[in-house]
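Chain X:
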Amino acid sequence: MGNTCASFHVVMHGPREVILPKVIQAVSRAYTAIGYERSQKHVSGGKHIVLMAPDGQRFASIFDSTNAQMDDGELKDVALKATKSLMTAAAFTSIYDSDSYEFILFSNGRQVDCLMDGDETNDSISKQMKPVARSKNWSSYFVRPITSEEITSAALRNSAFADDNISALSQLIGLSKGQSQLQYQDVRDDTAAHIKHLFFKRKEQILAKVVDGQQSFSQFYDPFYSRMISVYPASWPAKLATEISPTWLVLSDGAGFTDARAVLTVEGPEGLSLQQIFVNGCKFHNGQIVGPLESTPPPPPAMTEDETKAYAQAITDAKKFAFTAIDGGTSPVRK
């Protein structure tokens, strides 16, 4: 297998001794915002973050132990939040098995550009600059002259290895120490002066006691059915221009209910939409789904053909929920 890695690289403006502590603080706050808190050492289920800031360039590179090979959405969210806090730019880079790559730019809390293999035909939901705008913007982000032609040449370099494209793009922006092709395992034990080690653990969630006569609803994480919740409130990445079937499990505790209202929201550019929605109700006991809700009618002891069809229809009707589209207007939010 070829190289597989993911990391992001923050542009530092100003004296290193002044800006580096601010970068560490911004990265820490970003991880806090997506559900983590600092710890003194690595704990089971936690994160080890390696921050590398070599001399001779203006980048601080971040490597995440739980996103060492592929980003599950957290690295991009942290990059976005860190650039907003620092009012700077960052480049997210990833390589998968040396065959494909992502080179995504963030600036001041916004995702502003995206390059990847097959970019000339990719119908990306990520923001992409027009080639004529890249020279001015990239030169501003990275404080060095960069032409649109150089960017296009590096992004579309005809090579058998995506590492070559990432290397060429990294050299253009001044990321010249090979960080974009390193993995967490390459730096996790490094004790050099330009390396900082940060540790995080998941924030403890304290569930409120349900008051008699009321209901409480909460998300339930299942590693098979609802993996996307594992990174919440970070974003779950999805392959571009493909259909996916996300699943949510919601637990109801306390008094029973006969009806409920849920709002499902899709936020993003045109083309990203909810195509179909299915809702099922199940009994839940001792951490397991143990059967359908009582809304499903019990089967009669013996059925004729017509009764079998009617019973099948009754089961279908018991699982039907009414959905109404809410006009999102001119905003990117659709409900």
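Chain Y:
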Amino acid sequence: MTEDTAASRSAALGNQTAMRLVFWPKRLLFFAVFVVCTVLLSRAELGLGRTLAITIACLFLLDSALRPLIQRQLRRLDRELLIALQQGADERLRQRYRSYRFLRLVGPKHELLERRGRIEKQLGAVQAAIEAYLVALDEAPRRDVPELARKLADLLYESQRYEAAERYYRISQDDSHANAGVRARIARLVIERGGDPREAELFLRQAIHLADDAKRAAVFRCQLIPLLAERNAAAEAAHELALVEQVLANSADSDDLQPLYQQTKQSLSASRGG
């Protein structure tokens, strides 16, 4: 996430007034504490090593004191946003967010911007939500990037910005964040933009492997079968169709799968020339 700035990516997504990156106050606070401690301790002539050690200890204690307070404030903010949302999505959501001044000063920027993104999305301010998620991605630690990228990709997909959506869906998928639905959506986006069918096939096979139940896997198989038929892999396509039929035969709750199965079967028959 360091190759380009949130502002440049926001402009690339069609924003006319890219979001400004502000200096996060918590960093300023820690820097001020560092400077004050260094100056005061240097006057005590403790030596450079002891001065730095005590200064770092002070910063560690300050951070340890702030963390539980910040987490409590985040949980409280989430509860209040949920209540406001239940009462109707309006300007009260933004007002609740703005009322947490201390949290916005010292809280984790990426988590707050993720919440801001949710608020703006709920209020229909799509571009503002995209901007919030972009900056959140720049600020987030690596472990939180996949989830934020997925939320941004969902928003871009809903906004019909498919090329950008595909890019962030791909970012969201690593070894610890593999998601069947996302893999299948990437496959559809690859197909729709006229990309490599083999790549789309790979993503659909991954989605089938990751599916949490046989019925969902069957849906992905129905999406895979036309790709197999297109490259004349008739035996593989027939095998996948047979697996779908097994699910239909063994599942009591498969009525919604039946239309997709019939459509896929007809498509496969047509590709065979009847």
